[in-house]
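User: Sequence recovery, please. Input:
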């Protein structure tokens, strides 16, 4: 059992995020947190706390939430049917919140997600890995004409090469802004 994190303030209103916005929780799967196949993702406890805060805000305000699951190849830690594949239970996914699967980075590669997102004016994105599936999903959403907000402290990764996870996250946040997405900290989302 992990120690309790500091309580988060309520997200409140994400204005000017439109009421018909949706939240995509990208690849926050058991294998990212359980430490079985690889170490838990960087800042795992805080990542869950911030993700939960955004998910709870969406539910309170009537915005739709969907979970994206990366389905790895047979024998891989995130393969369907493996212990690492399911959405991380600590996120508290509701039965009414769909899970869309993908085999590539961009969640919008799943036509069912494209259909589900139809009519949404903005996509709020959080999840893992910052430089891979989160980045590809941001790019996919922007390419489809959606306004995008990335929750800056609710996406994460691992150290890679000479870059720390924190450096990768900061680099990606700058790249998201440069690409046209809004980047907001979970605690500051209500400040607009």
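Assistant: Recovered sequence (192 residues):
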């Amino acid at each position: 059992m992990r120690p309790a994190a500091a309580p988060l303030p309520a997200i409140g209103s994400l204005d000017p995020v439109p009421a018909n916005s949706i939240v995509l929780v990208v690849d926050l799967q058991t294998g990212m947190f359980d430490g079985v196949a690889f170490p838990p993702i960087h800042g795992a406890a805080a990542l869950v706390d911030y993700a939960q805060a955004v998910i709870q805000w969406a539910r309170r305000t009537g915005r739709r939430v969907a979970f994206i699951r990366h389905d790895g190849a047979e024998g891989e830690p995130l393969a369907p049917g493996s212990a690492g594949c399911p959405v991380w239970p600590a996120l508290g996914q509701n039965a009414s919140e769909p899970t869309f699967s993908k085999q590539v980075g961009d969640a919008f590669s799943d036509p069912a997600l494209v259909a589900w997102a139809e009519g949404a004016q903005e996509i709020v994105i959080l999840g893992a890995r910052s430089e891979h599936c989160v980045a590809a999903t941001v790019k996919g959403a922007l390419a489809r004409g959606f306004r995008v907000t990335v929750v800056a402290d609710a996406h994460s990764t691992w150290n890679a090469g000479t870059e720390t996870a924190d450096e990768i996250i900061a680099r990606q946040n700058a790249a998201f802004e440069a690409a046209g997405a809004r980047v907001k900290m979970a605690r500051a989302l209500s400040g607009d």
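Strands lie at 22-26, 64-70, 99-102, 122-128, 147-156, 182-184.
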